[in-house]
Amino acid sequence: MTHALTALTMPKFGLAMTEGKLASWAFSPGDTVKEGDEVADIETSKITSGYESPASGILRKQVAQAGETLPVGALLGVVADADVSDADIEAFIASFKADTAEEGGEEAEAANTEPRLIKAGDHNLNVRDVGKGGSAPLLLIHGFGGDLSNWMLNQDVLARSHRVITFDLPGHGASSKDVGDGSVTALADAVSELLKALNISSAHVMGHSLGGGIALALLRDNPGVVASLTLVAPAGLGREVNAPALKDMVEADRTRDMQKALEALVHDKSLVGRKMADNVLKVRRLDGARDALRTIEASCFGNGQQSFDMRPVLDAARVPVTLFWGEEDEILPVTGAKNVPDSVTKHIMPKIGHMPQLEKTAELNRLVEAFLEKSHVTA
């Protein structure tokens, strides 16, 4: 059942966006809109992009006017069913603004929560832990060469209803650089140790790319720990991989080269800027960082192929599983999605690359929230 009233809010395009300009409305009050219709154009310092309506209904109210610059999350307008009264619309707007003011302190606290190092077995892992909730927490596992910032558009949104934990894998970000043999088994062991260190007996697990393979290894080796599984362009479901792109992400040592390497991660290349490339290079230049990634690369993607097969794990899974994959993935081809059982709910996203959590943020967040609600497990 869809909600009778839906808020249109300032979206977040790109990693650094904190505010945007409502350039123009594509619909007028009273017009019928469908979910996915581009209802407005949003300008940032780098791009202009259409904002897609998250719901179908009638554009009942334009709260913001063309030309206004507003923070991410600000109310732009309201979509509602025809039978919703004008008084209910105004009450909804007043309630939204009141809730925003009331929750502003909590959201600011979440946004400003700094990562901290946690001892997990033999590793020191850089961990960011935000949000609350009575159900099992959500653990997000990033991919090869990434870090916890890969989830920065997802963590705080999902933390409105769950405790959500991100961390840097061993060999990545600010975590310690010992990766053992670099295998998904070794990395999954580190994840298991982290859950023990946080006194978490059961968690919803969401893994991207190599992180998806690690999540599957965690399910294989510690099945009681995984309450549900969300896979985003996961490794381990086929042999093919863009090995040259992975090598470039490890070895590039100039901003321009790193920017070009990172562009393989997304379909919309404008999302990758020099600042992002510079930030990745800073991490690569830490002592032991490149060697750690080379070890993982050799173990997981040796001879230009994925060297581990997680399809049997998925076939045997006894927990809820959902899958997201971009049709234009240049790192792990979307054909891997064919190798999952029918019990897995698939979301194949057109015109999206290897990082749906960045390129299709709002939709992915919404679908993950719905999946977690269905997969509710008390911790």
From TrEMBL:
Q: Which InterPro entries match?
A: AB_hydrolase_1 (IPR000073), AB_hydrolase_fold (IPR029058), AB_hydrolase_sf (IPR050266), Biotin_lipoyl (IPR000089), Single_hybrid_motif (IPR011053)
Task: List where this protein forms a coiled coil.
Answer: none
Biological process according to GO: acylglycerol catabolic process
An annotated GO cellular component of this protein is:
membrane
Q: What is this protein called?
A: Branched-chain alpha-keto acid dehydrogenase subunit E2
> PROSITE patterns, from UniProt?
BIOTINYL_LIPOYL
Q: Which NCBIfam families match?
A: PRK14875.1 (NF011457)
Cite the GO molecular-function annotations of the record.
monoacylglycerol lipase activity
